[in-house]
Amino acid sequence: MISWSGGKDSALALHNVSSKGRKILGLLTTLTSDFERISMHGVRRSLLLAQGRALDLNLEEVWIPKDATNTIYEKRFAEKVLKYRAPVIFGDLFLEDIRRYRENLFRRLGVRAEFPLWGRDTKKLAEQFIELGFGALVCTVDPRKLGWEFCGREFDYSFLRDLPEGVDPCGENGEFHTFVYKGPIFRIEIGVTRGEIVLRDGFYFCDIMPKR
Fold it and tell me: What is 2-210's CATH number, 3.30.450.180, 3.40.50.2000, 3.40.50.620, 3.40.50.410?
């Protein structure tokens, strides 16, 4: 299984392991039931389903309410993980506290957590994503770190050049999140269009929509 946010880091992690011949059992994604969107990223469920079809992988949805406690999240996440009892792959890059949290949780479940991108140079990783032919839109921006005008932009070399000093090129500190709509792991490109940008719960969200 791969912990799938729909963004570039989970896409790169999937590309990394699948290129080595690893069989992936499915995508494991947390969604917020109040909005029917991917948690944190705010992406519509319909686009998540489109990713699953384009990747030809099963989708395991972990539903949590808005403002869910860690206890609720861990219980519902564990139910899906224990259904497969297979290693779970994460796209985490360098945040030690998050890695420790995941490893401690999975140790209790008796399941291995894997981090194939861990410790990689994030600037080179961001450039590799583009060079491999992936395409992604910025779906979420933290206004404490980036201006609203970065929300909805294409994740490309121009975006990377415009990032202010101190902002991680992969957004690993939560500066921004992305939605991947094409790439070497996809059978087909997902048609998307940009909707309105809104400020909600302290973050800017671009409402990425399926192209009709």
Answer: 3.40.50.620
Three-class DSSP labels, the chain: CEECCCCHHHHHHHHHHHCCCCCCCCEEEEEECCCCEECCCCCEHHHHHHHHHHHCCCEEEEEECCCCCHHHHHHHHHHHHHHHCCCEECCCCCCHHHHHHHHHHHHHHCCCEECCCCCCCHHHHHHHHHHCCCEEEEEEECCCCCCHHHCCCECCHHHHHHCCCCCCCCCCCCCEEEEEEECCCCCCCCCEEEEEEEEECCEEEEEEEECC
Give residue-wise pLDDT tens across range 22-76.
Answer: 989 999 999 999 889 999 899 999 999 999 999 999 999 999 999 899 999 999 9
Which is nearest to 55 in space by CA: 199, 168, 184, 169? 184
pTM as predicted = 0.96
Q: pLDDT of 161-172, one tens digit each?
A: 999 999 999 999
**Above pLDDT 70, what percent of the chain?**
100
- Smallest CA-to-CA distance from 64 within 100, 95, 40, 92 is with 40
Q: Where are the domains of the chain?
A: 2-210
